[in-house]
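Known limitations

Files may contain more than one protein. Parsers should not assume a single record per file. Below, a two-record file is shown to illustrate correct handling: read the sequence, read the token line, then continue until end of file.
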Amino acid sequence: MDYPISAARNAPSLGRERAENGSLAMSTQPQSGQNPNRTMERQSTVDPKGRSGAGGFGRGGAVKISGEKVISVRRLWEEVDAKRTRSHLGMSSVRYLLWLVIYLVALYYQKNSRDAFRTSEAMKDTFARSSFTHPQTGVPMSFNDIRSVGEMWAYVDTKFVPTYYDLFWSNGDPKDEFYKNALLAKNRVTHGMRWTQRRGSINQCTATGKYNAFFPYCYPAISDGGKESIVDFGPYYDETKYKYTSYKHRFSEHEDGFVVTMPYNLSHTIVELQTLKSDRWVDEATQWWRIDFTTYNPSTNLFAQVMLTLEFDTSGQVRPKCEVAIMRSQVYMEKVRDYVQIVLEIIVIIGLLMYLLTNIKDYFHFQYEGAPGDWYIGQFWVGLELTQLILLLIALVYWIVIITDPIRNEITLKLGPMIDGKPGTRDISLDELTYYDGPLSLAPVQVQLRDYFVVQAIVVGLSMFRLLKYLAFNPLFGGLIETFMIIKVQLLQFIIIICSCNVGFAYMANMMFGHELAAFHTFDQAYFSLIGMVLGGGVTYAEIAAVNPVGAPVFYVPFTMFFCFIVLHMVVALIMESYQVHQSNRVRLVGLWHQVLFGLARNYRFMQRYVGGDNQWRFDGPDSAKIRGWLRSWDWDSLDSEQEHTESELLERLQEENVTHDEVAFLFRRYSFCTRLRDPPPPEPEVNDMVRELFKQLKVLSDAHSVAQRKLDAILAGQHM
């Protein structure tokens, strides 16, 4: 699909044409301190009739091999290779942009984030964010405000059950049978609700033996790897009433625990909840509790599993959390949107296969050519493209697993039984959608979708970063990427230094402020919170000073001085220096329209009428690919970087390539910015002797003048010699 930016190890940037005054014609003025005879002539001497001072190659001119000019073969190679690279980048950028647009649209259709987000927000607003009044304290609160087991039961009795069993319309009329268990009138509950808890094993933790008699019970933190209890438990009258449930058909153990399932029946649920409360089903051993239920919405083609979770930390803290897992009931349906998605996905896969074959072809092509192509795999952009390709293949495998997921295939529809005395009428309230005769759970699919879109997000990031590569097809747009290529190694070193030093500051913050501030209570939280502080956000000095007024300046001053005044300024200085290097080596500032117009004219003859009569001669000579083929056979490792040839010498050098006089003259005319006036012959030896003698006399006079000046200064200062 595309080609590496450059396959020439001798072309560190895309050409070496210096831009002066923003025009294609280059100034003939020498640089300061430079021999004017060594200055390349950068202005072409073409007259309107197509004649050139270096040898005409035009429609009305005759070829004259003059030898008045010399051409730098090294710079000629760099310019030709740069033109060939820009040509490849220009064609590849069009194909890549087309593929990238199709890929992003297909990915957007796969995500379907709009309907999923709206469903998730509707459920969270209804069950987690909306408030209720605590029946004992009279304080307004929500699910997110729960901090104790008592508040949990108050939420269940006062808020959850009335919201979950919404059996009447707003005017007081009873709902129709299909709408009785439809939340928000659009999402029908598939299989009642499920209560789950996970328990810690009593006394399976290390406690100080001295204080066992004072408090003999301890529970390990399951979230930190402590031992989980799977022993049956219950009230005094039945100590094995509640048994541990393991879902063997699930993809993970996240749903295992002590499970109580309640069908969608209000009276049955009220009795079951009273039993759980009287049995102290949630007690001191409970470390994780969850209510979950699943709904189906035919309008959006989505299943939604609502999970209301409380984590009972071993410190006594209660952390509420509401999650909503979304899954399509069918990946592809018979509607225009899904047909478009299928077509786009097929195009993306075809483009991916073509991309893979192109990279394989390029590898063998450069391997066959040898140097400078034998380092093809080691190039930065090739490494980036291979990483993108591998991740795309991984994402493709993920997507195949998702669309063939067994959960959709194993969902069973169970309709309610027929009602006695009413032929042809069934009990709609008992309709269920089950998975292995149990509640429908979307947690495994949610994990797969999360991992899939994480991989795709990384691919999108690499794709956008790779898009910068194609900016180099035009010198005006290539400044950013060229600067980055110059700075990449040094920038990586600074990133390593910053990340390493931030480890020490993270430990300092954790030790000084971790006991009070959530941003520093763990090492990973502290590490990324400090990065936020460097970027201007996160914790302020006032907050850390309130926690530890002594340690705040000890931490804040060196942290600020190091990152804000040293590291960031060094990075800025490095970028500026690299940009200056790019400016000194940049190619001519060719306009984008000029580049596109002449590129089309080279590939399509009918476009040549739009470039003007004065530029028609450009299409009569060999193109850059042919010239590059002539020069590639040279031994560039042993070639002197200052080697230059006249037209006659270059013609003789290229005889093995069957190059004609006309083609050599075209080279001198087309690449006139690589030529200069020929050096004059060296002076005669006797002239050199005269110059040396004159220099000696001037030095003697200069020394005598210095002595006289010192004596005069001493006399004026009143000193005696």
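...continuing to the second record:
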Amino acid sequence: MGLEEIPPNLPRGEDGYVDWSKVDVKDLEMPAGDDMGIVSDDEGIDVEEVKSESGFGTVIVVDNLPKVPDAKFEKLCTVVRKIYGQIGVVRENGLHMPKGADGVTKGFAFIEFHNPVEAAAAIEQTNGYKLDKAHVFKVSKFDDFSKYDAVPDVYKAPEPKPYVARENTASYMLDDRGRDQFAIRFGDETEVHWNDAQVKEPVEVYKRSFWTESYVQWSPRGNYLATVHRQGVALWGGPGFARFAKFSHGGVQFIEFSPCERYLASGSTHDPANAREQAQVVVNFFDVRSGAKLRSFQGPISDFVTGAQRGLTWPVFKWAGASDAGAFFARMGKNAVSVYEAPEMGLVDKKSIKLEGVLDFCWSPADPILSVYQPEQGGGNQPARIALIELPSKKEVRSKNLFSVSGVRMFWQQSGDYFAVKVDRLTKTKKSTYSGFELFRLREPNCPMEVLELPDKTQKIVAFAWEPKGHRFAIIHGDGARPDVSFYTMIDEGSAVNKVKLIGTIKNKTANCLFWSPKGKVIVLAGLKTMNGQFEFFNVDEMETMASAEHFMATDVEWDPTGRYVTTAVTSVHQMENGFNVWTFNGKLLYKHQRERFYQFLWRPRAPSLLSEEKEAEILKNLKSYSKRFDELDESIRNAQDSHLAAEKQEVTDAWNAWLAKKRSRVEADDYVDEVRKIMRQRYPDWTEGGAADVVETQVEVEEIISVVEEPLSMAR
């Protein structure tokens, strides 16, 4: 603001200058659009949302409150403060609830927050909040009253906004070299890179400081990058990573996309105002394309923690696999699983699925099939039970009773073809346990199942993993520091009926985790945590080790969506060696990338292929003819790199030759020779140019010891 822009109505002293001691800075208004050179850290909130015409942008009006007498006034105020205190900070004496002449409240209240952002979040989250059957909140801005009062009596159609084309969120799929992108987060920075195997280093696409206050997450099909903030969630996409949508949710901690990317769930927990009360949980569901909130679930944490859970486990609601039958999501309650369908967000058939004592459930990744586990009931008289339930019909596809069960874990194969249950059973003495597997074949008639037990069923099961696209699975088993790894197949070509069959076992491996390639065939046997980052790249088709490697203190392993590359990373769990390594599928190290305070590495998912299975099989069969074009492109890149390196070397050589020529011309110049003569005469009065004194010969003798050999001396007697 220049001197000529200072408002003339400000009080001034005798010298004509503004007397700032008499100015209330709260009454000053800065020029529109002037940020005084200070860039906001939070670009997730639009100016329109926090602008206030009257100065009451922090005040909201809550209507449809209960009308209570003086005796219940304080109790109602406490309830209202508790609800809104979870969203933002209510100012001291910031709750005003008017009363009538009879002392009964009028059914509405004014609430003042510390800033307009909190006020906007309170409206977003509590408008429509159901206090009880008779009182559903209607919440609005205080400023809205003057705005609606100024609406003209004669309707005037608004001018249409000009069409602005959005960026293509799938543009990354059009890369002519078929590269994949990944996002990394370290310190206060978030960056997106291409993985370029030819140049053997990441190629930067986009970067931004303070892009998130918590973490980032790709959507399941890779169209969006979600960033999490105090006020809510923002989605970014396109070549320039423009913001596509934002969703208001104060204090959001968790997010989860539906597999089809059409819906987003966000969750948060809020500490109670009173230590004797429970923490509150809020879960909101949004439509990704429109940004509309579809439904909100709120309540004490005890309503969201069930079964054997010791605390809140996210996701509270689990999405079913993408299918044509609809978008389903489910939540486990006491003796029931509630299944909802989007976008209506209502219960399927308007009722939950009754399951006595249900402890766990999960969805098939490919179909709307729900797997549930019910423990033993009635002191062991009623067996434990695993059931597969199809939606929306709620028809039971298959079930299995289990006895003497101490615990179970459920594993779906990514394609939904197979389902496995690891069952830990008690021995007859009840003093020890042993493990086995119940295996289900979902694509075969009547969903047959069979039992698999290891030769030594008392061995500890360290890890289990299905081949994502295939019929095999791997198990790490053993009690020592170097367990065994066994591979099985669900297809027995030598039998008329498919039975699980052992492919082979490899002994004494430094591994405690299994990471299959997304395309199958190759698996990484990883030794994380106490095993300090040992890796073995194993070809299951040939049952041979392709390479062994080490990434000291590695904490994470992640395959790229094509199965060509795999990343190992050391995150900020460790204070040293933070960063990531990129390897080829057969264990060749491409490059290392070190970053301090390294938090996340996320490969960008690819959209589902539009090719049929027959077309993919044809391409695979004729891969050499298709790959010729890419081989030529790779060769041109290598040649360009060689040319670039040769050009750099030539540039250095030319620079040296130019410097040398410049020095020679200087030395040979007459003025330089005269200056040298002058200096020599000053230092050596007897010096004559070309005389004998110009040359001094010195003869030096140097003795060099070639070797020293010690030999024993024999003494003659």
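Parsers that stop after the first record will miss the second one. For reference, the second record is described as follows. The CA atoms of residues 612 and 618 lie 10 Å apart.
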